[in-house]
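Side project, low priority. Logging it here so it doesn't get lost.
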Amino acid sequence: MSAYHSLFLHEEILLLALRDEEGTIAGGMYQYAIGGALLAELLLQKRIATDEKKKKLVNLLSQTPLGDPLLDECLEKVNSAKRRASLETWVSRFAGIKNLKHRIAERLCQRGILRMDEDKILFLFTRKIYPEVNPGPEKEIINRLQDAVSGKTHDIDPRTVVLISLAYHADLLRNVIDKKELKERKEYIKQIIQGDLTGTAAKEAIEAVQAAIMIAVIMPAITAAAVTSS
């Protein structure tokens, strides 16, 4: 990983999802974006790839660890799976890992970017929160996103394209880009996501997270409709 991208994609997504001062989630379907980010890292780092004949199924390319406990756990899940699964399935599985948010936040605390604290909900329940103590890394992320979305950066690198896609489909871009600009640049953002700026691995990651988020949005509605009609 280059010095320019000092954080993994799933760490960048969590920073975008967290409120800086409160240390709580600002909204959006961040857990599926994190699942997609974990999958994207494995694809971009050439640990996995899709089957050439059955495009939706994932093949293991390398068991070499990446040095991040969460990514290495995801890699082991793929390695130890009894049967191959689709990209969309792996996004959902990774998104469902226990204590996902806290595990990523704790790593960011170790790097001195966040700090762990606690607060009470309704004076009854205690929860962990992660206020930001070093705004530098997130500021760099936001600048990258704003430059890309505004058109200031025309040669957008694949990792930033994937990050834009993840943040857009998880409704996280609104946390860092002005609502009016986001509306004005909507078509351009779609062009970034759907364009030929990325390699195969990045495109596969984007398609997988889009499908997984769509499933997450649709399934509760289908379930509610089934209950209502029964």
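Brief comment: Residues 9-135+199-217 form a domain with the yeast vps74-n-term truncation variant fold fold (CATH 1.10.3630.10).
Revisit when time allows.
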